[in-house]
Every structure is written in C-alpha cells, then in structure tokens.
Input
Amino acid sequence: MSTISDRLTTLRQQVDLLDDEIGQLLERRAQAAKQIGEYKRSQGEDAVYYKPEREIEILRDKLKKYSGLIHAEDLASIYRAIFRACLNLQKPIQVGYLGPQGTFSQAALIQHFGQAVRQMACESIEDIFKQIESNKIDYGVVPIENSTTGMINLTLDRLLVSPLQIIGEIKLRIQQNLLSLSTEIKNLKTIYSHQQSLWQCQNWLKQHLPQAKQIAVASNAKAAELAKQDATSAAIAGELAAKAYQLNLLASNIEDKSQNTTRFLILGQQSVAATGNDKTSLIITTPHDPGALLKIMAPLAKHQVNITAIASRPYQLENWTYLFFIDLEGHQTDKSLALALAEIKQNPIMFKILGSYPQAVEI
Output
C-alpha cells in the first residue's frame, strides 16, 4: 500500500511542478501581451487590438501540434481563454449577441471568444448591428444559416445596407434539450421554444409528447424563462439555458437531425488580412434577363474560384429582382479571386463585398 501511495505522491509532485511552469509561462505571455498593448496605444487611437486572423492562425497551428491526449475542443477552449485574458490586458472588448441570456447565439459567442469576454445581450439582430455601428460595442455575433432550416433573412437584409464587415464565422452544433422544473416527462402539458427549434424536434415530440401543446416564442431563452414558472411546462433549448434558468435536463439531443448546425457571423468595423484558409462573402443582384446569373458567375469558373454557398431571396426595393448571397473560397486579395471579382464588377449590377475572413476551425 505504501508503494502505491508513494507513487501517487511522486506523480502529484510532478503535476505541481508542471502547474508552476505553466503559471510562469502564462505570466511571461501576459507581460509580452501588455507590452504589445502599450506599443499599440503609442501608435494612436486607430490601433486594432483584436486580430481574428492572428488568433485563428495560432489556434490552427497549436491544434496540429498538440491535439493528442487533450481533446481538440478542450485545447481550443484553453487557448481561447489565454487569448482573451491577454487581450484584456491590452483592451477589453465587448461582444453583442442575440439575447436574452442562455440562447444559442450566446453559446456561439462563448465557443469563439471564451468566457472572459464582455458580453451584451441584444434584443434583436437589428439591435446588434446598431450597437456596433454606433460604437457602443466592439463586435457582434449574428446567425446567418442553419443546416436544417436555411438562411436567416433578417441578417441578410441588414448586411445589405450596413457598413459593417464580416470578420469571422462560428459553426455551432445545435443540440436541443428538454428542460423543466419537473423531473418527469409524463407531467408535461406545454412545450415552449423558438419555432425553428420546434420544427427541428418534431419527430421526437410526436413520439414522446404527442399530447403536449407546442407554443412558439421569440427565443429558446424566453422558452426557458416561461418553463421556470410552471412545473407542467418545458422548454426546448440548449444546456446554457438550463444553467441560466436552473432547470432540469429531462432529455438531451432530441433534434431530429444529429448534424444540425448553425453558422454564425462575427461582425466588426475592421478588415481582416488573409490567412491562407479564408472565405469571402458578397451580395449581388441580377437583372431579370435569361442567363443573367450564369453570366455573372462565369468569371468565378474562369479563374477557378470555388463557390461554397449561394442563396437567393426577393429584393424588397424592386419587384421581380433577387438578391444572391454568395460565399467563395479565398480572400479578396488572393490573385485569382481578385481577378474574378474585378470582372464581375464590370456588369451593371448591385455588388457588395461583405468581408473576407478566416474559415471556422473545424473541431
């Protein structure tokens, strides 16, 4: 027994020494980050403190080198916490999300920026844009696309008229959960959730709660707030909402499609440099003529630019005209993409580049 105890003591001493080394390295990194902040401040008010391209390049490199015993998702979370702690020494940033507390938008924010960032719950997608445009917050996280239900038109409409740039993207695996004050599913009579979440869980609801009334509300967080008031009701929401509103998790991963994912955009007022693994988003309108879209897309094929997504919707300012939201591989400064975009601009169309930004890290 003493041999086992001695071995455990030795291993714990090794861990203690490693923790001390980690602490010393973190202190050195923080000191270097502080000096960088002081240098940036000496350069004037226009200095950019948050550099998404720099962070993502570091993250990609470290995940390649060290993702072994520590799961990649956990390693990414550790590095993001370090990034944010060091950035706070330079200039704390505030990021807006679609509130209230406990939404998937907040979960996306935390996944990308970490817990240490200052968070602001905004009332609507429109409000997030306005808060950034008026310099009340630094950045914002808005949903743009769900793998099950498609594009978010409210975001598309606002991108069309806003001066903001897309500076990054987040892909969040949407895991729907049944939350309630009750500890028994059989006691439930009412289910609250956002309409999209109700749609995403229809098969599960028909099988397990066929008699329960389904009520659509403004957000999953609002659903959790309502479920908190009545033990015969439940909410379909994320785990973050369960923690925020102190609800029991009665069933997890109840979405009908296991790969259900929502893509979020990070908005800001800065341009982002190329990283070598980027995406460019743009909006165009086409004239109501045969082959108009094909003609406009021809330069992309000519210069071998890959289209990763394309979606259309009616243009509200002109009947029978459509907006096309297009994602392209590459940065707008890349030679092939730059040549293709220059040719597209020669057409008599409305054309707007929404930003070039690093592609989300796949974990």
About this structure: The mean pLDDT is 91. The radius of gyration is 24 Å. The longest strand covers residues 165-173.
